[in-house]
Structure formats: C-alpha cells, structure tokens
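Annotated sample (chain length 495).
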Amino acid sequence: MVKRSGGALLLSLHIDRESGRRVTSQVFTAIREMILSGGLNAGERLPASRTLAKDLGISRTTVIEVFERLAAEGLIESRTGAGTFVSDALKENRPAMTPPLTGTENRPFSKPRLSRSITKASEMFYERLPHEPRAFTTAMPAFDAFPLALWSRQMSKHWRDQRNIVMGYSDPHGYVPLRRAIASHLRANRGIACEPEQIFVVGGAQQAFYLIGSLLLDPNDKVWFENPGAIGARNSLIACGGNLIPVPVDGQGLMVEEGQRLAPDFRLVFVTPAHQQPLGSTMSLERRFALLKAAEDADALIIEDDYDGEFCYGGHPQPTLKSVDSTGRVIYVGTFSKTLFPALRLGYFVSPPALVDVFNQVTNAFLQGVPSSNQAVVASFMEEGHFAAHIRRMRKIYAERHQVLCDAASAHLSGLLEIVPTDTGLHTIGLLSPDLSENDAAAAAEERGITVTPIERFSIAPTHSNGLVLGFSGIKPPDILAGVSTLARALESIR
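Output written by the structure step:
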C-alpha cells in the first residue's frame, strides 16, 4: 500500500542556525513539546520524512534520526505502509501541562505541606543582595588583587596529576593534603592546636552550619544567637529546627549574662568573636572565658564563625575562642570564600575530639565531598607558601581601603552617617543620623547604583541600632570615593 502524502503541517517549527545547538536536537525538542502539550493529538499522522525535510529545509537523515529518538521515547509509532503517527498511548497517559506560576488560575494540585522548620525559617528569608564588586557590597574579596596567573599555574599543574584524583569521587571528609595544610595553618596563625583528622572540608561555611545544626539540635532546642547576627548561619540553624534566642551584643561581643537570663537551658551558641557580624566589635578575652564557662555549666556547644578574622590589620589579634577552649566545647568554622574567592565553595570546620567519630559517620553517610580538584589546588597553594603571602598582602590592601572609606566619609558624610572604624575584616558600619531611616537610605542608595545594608536585616529582634553595613574590601579606592559621594547625595535626598 502506498503511503498517503501530507500529514500534520509543522511549519511553525523554528530552527536557529546561529545557535550552538545541533539542528537534530532543536527539531526533536520542538516536536516532543508539541506532542506533550497537545499540539499534536494521539493518532495524528506526521509528515513523511522526505516531506518534513523539504518543509524545514533540512536533510532527510536528520528527520529520520529525530523520528528514531521520538519512537524510542514511545511518543510516536510507525505503521507499515501507513506512515508515522503520534502514539495512541498518549490518549490516556499524556502528562498534564503545568499552569503558569503567575495569575489566579486554579492549580491542578494543592501546595505541598512544608516542614515546620522550613516554614518557620522561610518567614525570615530575605531576597539575596547583589554580589557585585561595587560600593558598598559586603563579603566581597578584592578580585582585582588576586594572583590569578599564579592560581592558573597551580591549576594546570594539578590537572596533569592522577586522573582518579582529578576526576574521581571526593573523600567526604575532605582531601587529605588540604586537611593537613589547614591544620598546619591554624596551628601557626590562629593558635588552634588540632590534627588533620579533626578537619572536615565542606561546600562553604553555610553547609557547615547546617551539618552541625542537624547533628546537634532536636526540634525547638534553644540556640543563643547574636542579635544582630550572621544571616546565613541564622537561616541554617532555624532550618535545622533550632529555637533562636536573640542575645544582645555590645562592644565586647555577645552579652553572656543576658543570654543566661533569657535561656539558661540553651543547647548551642553561635558567635563571631573576631569581627562580630555585622557590628564589627571584637569579643573581649573576659567575655570569651565567660561564654566557655556558661557552655560548660549548661552542657552546651559553641559554633565559632571565623569568617574574616584572618584580616586583622589593627595590631595583634585576640586569640580565637577555639584556642582558649580547654573543655572541647567549640566547633570552629572557617571559609576560603573571603581569604581566596567565593566561587571555590570551600569551607571547613574543626571538630572537638569527642565528636570526630560521629562527624566521620555522618559525612560518610550523607556527603559526597566537594570537588577534589579545587581542594588539591588550594592545598598546594597553602603548602608552597602562597596562601600566607596572599593573606599578608590582602591585610595591607584592606587596611588602605578602610582608611580611604573613613577619610571620605569624614569629608562628605558629616551629619549624615558616622563611620565606626574597624581593625579587622571586610566591612564596617555607619551610624545614621536619627532623622534618617535605614530602609529609606538603602532604597535611595540602590536607586543610584550602590549597595548599603540596613542593620535591621541582620536582626531577629528589635535593636537600638540605626545604621548601615558597608563593605569596602572588594572595590578600588577611586570607586570608594565615588560611592561615598553618591551615598551622600542619596542620604540628602531622604533627609
């Protein structure tokens, strides 16, 4: 029997010959979507391969390959002597199209029920701030000063290494040479006596917070949390079911006595002793010992987030909380996002000896490990002394940029914003004139292409602060000067 000519007209099919995608893939995807969306009905005949090739201006070989792929998915079927048809199986089993996500149309399904922890956490989630190297983005290292050529050579050397290291599964605990390098660095530079077996490498500090919270917290366990405090850690610990107790912060850090008054039966504490996030204070030695004593009395543990403590440029830094912990209460968390660059997605934590075995068990069970290729490059970067040299250089650069910000603010922001000097880290705060609103100031700045963050954004309970968080590390001095002038105009506009 001679096949009938014709078949469905598919002239709406568009082929983009400038696209990098193969023509075969474009035609296959387009016909597949027509079938699944109901544009082609079950039992409807498709054009013959020669006819469709002529209509679309493509080779018959391409059309045959497309038909073979559609047949392999069960979407079309060939009938000897009759042609190619949309599969009859789709009469009953065609997937329903998902309605648009906007508008008020009735949904074909109800919204899934979320866990109580995530429902509670989502009430406090903010839209992410822009992570662009512009005035005054926070948590942004100086990309312009990073030794990219040196890094490229390290990468090239590593990619000539054994293929099982470069391409294989990563050790869920972390690449062993990197764990050794981190332990050596912490002993020499942060005063932390630890062994490589206590180091666990993860996909950034926030993954560390979530892993620690999942391990230690039962639903509604009380967590002392700095108020204001770090947003990422806050989100992670709430998502783990923690009941965050907002503990005020003063010039000496977290107010331990206030925490004991609010929740003496706490399970966990989160602190940023080296450079309080966001206010910038350094926890005093007296306050550190008080916190360790409170944790011991309550049989609680402490997360110490040392996110930018490497960059102390105002004299000799205070010892880390971990370095003065004699009872094994502190879990120290560090990150390479600030010391190197955030795209690495590398963080780590130092477990107390008593928790090493359980962290080994948990990481073996749930983590695949971060790419060993990135870990290996960082390890060699540290072992050859480049990391220490980079930290020293960045301290000098950040000190200079901090001074530029302070001098420019003194000249242009007097009566509007008082910069609070810092001697550590990548950001500082500015205290607003009482007649100015944090949120109005942030909105006016955003309209003019700069980013400032209200302190309120970091708070889980009201505070007496009225100010803005300003990053200075990731922008060059001329851009800092221009940003201060723009900020002055923004603040004047809302006064």
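Annotation: The mean pLDDT is 90.
Annotation: The two ends are 86 Å apart (CA to CA).
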